[in-house]
Write a structure and sequence with these properties.
The complex is a heterodimer. By secondary structure, chain A is an alpha/beta fold. Chain A has four helices and five strands. Chain A is 49% helix and 18% strand. A five-stranded mixed β-sheet of chain A has the order 1-2-3-4-5, sandwiched between helices. Chain B has a five-stranded mixed β-sheet with strand order 1-2-3-4-5, sandwiched between helices. The termini of chain B are far apart. Classes of the chains: A alpha/beta, B alpha/beta. At the A-B interface, helix 3 and helix 4 of A face helix 9 and helix 10 of B.
Chain lengths: 120, 317
């Protein structure tokens, strides 16, 4: 189970360990529901702890991005490991339309910038 | 004339104690070995014979090396000098049956001749030639007694084969070692990832890029992005003379992977040739940020990072 933390206008989900497909779907449902409940403007999913991203995980993450955008929040993936990034790209999983950042700090900075632009 | 001068000292360095015995043996009329003459005795006799004919056989061998255009990287004098020491080491190995000294010598020889571009087939060729020359000499010596000739060859050939394979294997191993060392050196040299400003990295690619090097560059870059917390990376390929579609696609993947780590990649310095190749090959570079030269790339990166370079008033260069 992945805890979803509310931090001001943002939601933060830190994935602590490799997840099953069912866990991923539960995380997706939880985030999409909470975005509305907390009136969040941004979502950060931190995958620093993951050393493998399979195609299902990548697809779910992309789905979360699209769904939360429809609910009015930007999403950023942070903490992709270099090896993971490389193998994802090798598999053609480039997450073209999803924001990415190095770590939580960068992700928060990116969201601040994005939501300021959008809010204007 | 040229060779004899160079071998005089080698000959005199031979331990004199070996000679009297050899001389006596060689002087014995051939063909009457005691019926039970041991293999060892026969081997001694062969070695003594080959030592006695050393100058003649060595010259014959060196001439054949030159005739067959082996060791073309070396001068005639060098071939003769090298032939002399190989010959002596060869006989020592034949006599003692131990290969360590020969192995060490073969390694030293390989170290000397590999940088000069001597090929494997040449080394194998000269060792086989020597084996051939010596075997012919044995044919000549024992030709009157077929049985004895057979026994002599039984003694000589396995030892000679072992020596030939030792030298050839030594050469190939040495070659492999040199190649590994050079690869290592190229790896070390070829992938500097340079931080130029807070959060700005430069990766100057130089020389031909093959898939392995491209992969390594990517790994190194991704790690550097992480450790330097880079936001922008400028990859400069001014020094890359050519690029094929594999490498181009790899570059695209590098850009994608860097983006996953939150870094923007700017590629600079695409030469006209590379630009033409890439467009002709149909590599999709539409997602890539490209700027004409490294200077422009750094300016663009500074803009993205919010830097502004302002000249200090009153300072002239």
């Amino acid at each position: 189970m992945v805890p979803i933390l509310k931090q001001g206008r943002y939601l933060i989900a830190t994935i602590p360990t490799a997840l099953t497909d069912a866990d991923l779907e539960r995380l997706r449902d939880g985030l999409v529901a909470q975005v509305g409940r907390c009136r969040s403007r941004g979502v950060i999913v931190d995958i620093t702890a993951l050393d493998v991203m399979d195609s299902f995980a990548v697809r779910t993450v992309r789905d979360i991005a699209h769904m939360t955008r429809l609910r009015g929040a930007e999403m950023v993936i942070v903490g992709i490991q270099p090896e993971v990034a490389f193998s994802m790209v090798e598999l053609g999983l480039t997450l073209q339309d999803v924001h990415t950042a190095l770590d939580l700090e960068e992700g928060l900075a990116l969201l601040d910038k994005r939501t300021k632009l959008v809010g204007h | 004339m040229r060779a004899h001068r160079s071998l005089a000292p080698v000959k005199s360095s031979r331990p004199p104690s070996a000679h009297p015995r050899d001389g006596r043996r060689a002087a014995e009329p051939r063909g009457e070995p005691p019926a039970g003459a041991s293999t060892a005795a026969l081997l001694r006799e062969i070695v003594a014979h080959l030592r006695q004919c050393r100058t003649q056989l060595r010259d014959e061998w060196a001439e054949r090396i030159i005739d067959e255009r082996l060791l073309t990287a070396m001068s005639r004098d060098e071939i003769f000098a090298e032939a002399t020491s190989v010959y002596d080491n060869y006989l020592d190995a034949l006599e003692t049956g131990t290969l360590e000294a020969l192995q060490a010598y073969a390694q030293g020889l390989s170290e000397r001749i590999i940088p000069r571009g001597v090929e494997t087939h040449e080394v194998v060729g000269i060792v086989l030639l020597l084996r051939d020359v010596l075997a012919r000499s044995l044919f000549g010596k024992y030709r009157a007694d077929f049985q004895l000739l057979n026994r002599a060859l039984d003694v000589y050939e396995p030892a000679a084969n072992r020596i030939a394979s030792t030298v050839a294997v030594g050469f190939v191993q040495e070659q492999g070692r040199v190649i590994r060392e050079q690869q290592e050196a190229i790896r070390e040299l070829s992938t500097p990832v340079l931080p130029v400003r807070e959060r700005l990295l430069i990766l100057p690619m130089i020389g031909l890029i093959d898939s392995q090097r491209a992969r390594q560059l990517t790994e190194q870059l991704l790690r550097a992005i992480r450790t330097n917390r880079a936001r922008v990376v400028v990859i400069d390929i001014t020094g890359v003379p050519a690029m094929d579609s594999n490498v181009a696609n790899h570059l695209v993947r590098t850009v994608d992977a860097s983006r996953l780590l939150g870094a923007i990649v700017i590629v600079t310095g695409l030469s006209p040739e590379i630009a033409q190749t890439l467009v002709t090959l149909g590599v999709d570079l539409s997602k890539m940020n490209t700027v004409g030269d490294l200077q422009g790339g750094i300016e663009e990166a500074e803009r993205l990072l919010g830097y502004q370079v302002v000249p200090i008033p009153g300072v002239k260069s």
